[in-house]
Amino acid sequence: MLKTILAVSVAGIAGTLLRFATANWVGANWPKHFYAATVAVNLVGCLIIGLLYGWFLLRPEVPIEIRAGLLVGFVGGLTTFSSFSLDTLRLLESGQALVAFGYLGISVFGGLLATWAGLSLTKL
To answer: pTM of the predicted model, to two decimals?
Structure first.
């Protein structure tokens, strides 16, 4: 378990630093389009998590430390949107469309509402 925690931590640092670097680069080059960094890391993260998940399905012998380090650590540090996308796809693939769309709606609209509530609380 300690090896897995270490793998997730080290890979998470790498993913977080890549996200930070991407945000800084986009902010310096396209300040009007600050959101492009989020779009970029979300799309790249989704591509990476899809590739890794598919590869791990084909290679069950890959150690859990590598799986967790790459999926949870690196890609999770880069963007959690990729995990959200994979979870939604897996629900759809398993025939749970209603749950998938509920999860999608709650995540997106609930997230926007929670962010608004948090910002509103700071104005009290």
So the answer is: 0.81
